[in-house]
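Ligand: flavin-adenine dinucleotide. Inputs:
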Amino acid sequence: MPPRITAKERMQITRQAMPEQNATERSHNFLEVNLGFPERLALLEADRCLQCKDPRCAKGCPVGVNIPQFLDLLSNGKIAEAAQSLLCDNALPAVTGRVCPQETQCEAECVRAAKGLPVGVGYLERYVADWAREHRDQLPQNKPQPSGKKVAIVGSGPAGLTAAGELAKHGHAVTIYEALHKPGGVLVYGIPEFRLPKKIVAQEVERLEEAGVKIECNVVIGRTYTIPELQQNFDAIFIANGAGLPVFMNVPGENFKGVYSANEYLTRINLMAAYEFPRSDTPVLQGKRVAVVGGGNVAMDAVRTAKRLGAEEAMIVYRRTHDELPARAEEVHHAEQEGVRFEFLTAPLEVVGNDKRWVTGMKCQKMKLGEPDSSGRRRPEPIPGSEFILDCDTVVVAIGTKANPLLTATCPDLKLNKWGNIVADENGATSIPGVFAGGDIVRGAATVILAMGDGKKAAQAMHSYLSKTAAVTA
Amino acid sequence: MPSIGQFPNSRKPLMGYFLSPMHRILAKQTLSPNVTRLDVQAPRIAQIRQAGQFAIVHLAENSERIPLTVADSNPETGTITLVIQAVGKSTNELVALNVGDAIRDVAGPLGHPTEMIESGHALCIGGGVGTAVVHPIAQSLQQRGVRVTSVIGGRSKEWVIFEPELKRYGQVVVCTDDGSYGRKGFVTDAAKEILANDKVDIVYAVGPVPMMRAVANLTKTFGVHTIVSLNPVMIDGTGMCGGCRVSLGNEIKFACVDGPEFDGHLVNFDELQDRLATYREFEQKSLACASENCRIEKQLSAQAKA
Ligand SMILES: Cc1cc2nc3c(=O)[nH]c(=O)nc-3n(C[C@H](O)[C@H](O)[C@H](O)COP(=O)(O)OP(=O)(O)OC[C@H]3O[C@@H](n4cnc5c(N)ncnc54)[C@H](O)[C@@H]3O)c2cc1C
Ligand SMILES: Cc1cc2nc3c(=O)[nH]c(=O)nc-3n(C[C@H](O)[C@H](O)[C@H](O)COP(=O)(O)OP(=O)(O)OC[C@H]3O[C@@H](n4cnc5c(N)ncnc54)[C@H](O)[C@@H]3O)c2cc1C
Ligand code: SF4
Ligand code: SF4
Ligand code: FES
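Predicted complex:
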């Protein structure tokens, strides 16, 4: 039988664009920006994959999704099989399909990127995952034999959720302890609805609960229970409490009314639904001129959120230039389309306020790029005499997060590095036998897929650890 | 050691989330015109909470997360005592609950336990609802063998709370602004007399910001170490948002994880008072919105959305 489609024909298909909400309209609502491929576009895009024998794309993916396999199944109309294949490698594909920095990972390695545009792996991952969410009944459910072992997981972000799913597959009894009242970590309190609808996170959590994972919210490890207490009741522990301690700029005026950390700003709006105030009880200041300091994903989320809350001017204030922005390319592109203003080569010196201590502006300094620093990025240097006042009534500080010492302070045996991150080997093993860690608490602020990769690896290591040890008395 | 992972109430999955273990209200008592005591089921917190710690309470899906001190607890019944002053929407909704009603989420115990002394004389000063926060501190001090003198105050007689409870731990001086009960005047007046006439090793002061500031200024002149319990706006209570930041000298602290109690001689009270006013406009709107008018508005907007 001749192949359904030849390589030449595949090469002739151009990359399909993601249908998206019109930029003017969406900059006033919280609905998802990307609308998702219809079936026709998905099949067409999947046909662009050359089915490489030695697929480079998979090497670019931190969890090694078998990309040609799921794309082949998809393009041949076997979507249930495609979903199964994808879910086998990636526990939260509906999430990663939306938030992975594909352009620096799988798609960066795709051979088609050499001549033209790479296969839209992320968009297709999203397509297949969304199908799987809607057709859960068409996917096989295998109930594993209970192993008799109990595992505790701290934190329900991507690392914790992935590890939970993986461990439940092996029949271990998994309990996730989450400090907040909703599971999901950054996926629910940080990343906004217009990029990752909370319904999707809820469905992924539901899938885990159906697989037998127990989630206890409102449990703050380090306060409600400590790690040594958990050790007495569980056979193994996975710590994935993220990097949730906001870093401030340490400049004068930072405690004026109208200065937020990005964590606070986004938590108010996402977790606490402040954009629906007064239908929800938590308020947020709706600045007319909002300055967001930083250039990463968090900064882009904050500035696009400010726009949606009605800011007349929503600005990014960043020390370097467009080329150095660490945010996902799509996010920067979307922010530009939505009318976000970019103040590049600008560093804040001070927050300025009125006599009532409300923010009225930010004293900034212009920068120029000097020699590359240790990270290889050109170091910004101040231009003397270039100070100016940037007019704004709200400042959102999005310059990073550090490890939160709340948990580690109550577990002195846990080895930390000088920044307070937990020291773990490539399998997530920490200095305490049976205690594993992964995600942002180990890496510092990183990405969803790296956190998931850690969760998966640690779960495998925990499974082999558990196979060698006797169960604690239940 | 209590067994972990076992909560007394069964939970059923709902919309992808397990409902929190039911935090039912087992007892309710009105303490003063706008202060209400609720005994709420929260077995784990009841077992381990210490003086000075608080819980984050989240009444229902669209509610705020608000911090409330654990004023007392009963490990046998698994209940914690919350003493709530109705000041805005969230606290009004809480005090409107009745025995048998439930709170969706209660997380804790949060914050550091109170810094204690092991012997000597402690002066515990409580203003208004702050008296409820002082109560577990006085209780714990007395259990350690510390002599406790409490000075508590309210606008008038019916606003004075926790007097009988505090009497169990030592001498109590009551002050009212109008002189309708105890001595007339502010708690600082009574405290000044005690500081002048008795040896005081440590002062604990909890109440409105102006009261804590006045006490701190007073004790500075006497050179007595003073601990105050700060009440900035909080959300998560775990150190994640930084909204609860307060200035101590040149240092920034997060009240939920580094506090909520701090050295009163270092606290920047002006800044705290100022930051507490951030959402004043919203708070009024939120309260007003609980009224009939807004209910109609909500219905209309719901209809418009459908
Ligand atoms: C606004 C924002 C946007 C982002 N956008 C992207 C993006 O587009 N793409 C991308 O790849 N990455 C993005 N990231 C980064 C990514 O979200 C994180 O790297 C990832 O979520 C880390 O996962 P984690 O599981 O380690 O921790 P988290 O997601 O931080 O989850 C940790 C969980 O542990 C809980 N917890 C903390 N302490 C305790 C405790 N003591 N006891 C119990 N529970 C506790 C927390 O409440 C939280 O739920 C973004 C981050 C932010 C903040
Ligand atoms: C550690 C701590 C312990 C506390 N203990 C008690 C207690 O035992 N009993 C008691 O009655 N009150 C206590 N409070 C104060 C209580 O949390 C607030 O009164 C409550 O949040 C007000 O909510 P509201 O919606 O009713 O009022 P709002 O109308 O929202 O506000 C009224 C006032 O409360 C302040 N406030 C608003 N939201 C918060 C918030 N999320 N966190 C803190 N303050 C806020 C506002 O600045 C304003 O001054 C405590 C606060 C802290 C930080
Ligand atoms: S998980 Fe991320 S990197 Fe891996 S294939 Fe999917 S989109 Fe690409
Ligand atoms: S590298 Fe590109 S073309 Fe090759 S298998 Fe991967 S996605 Fe397909
Ligand atoms: S309440 Fe968020 S850091 Fe303290």
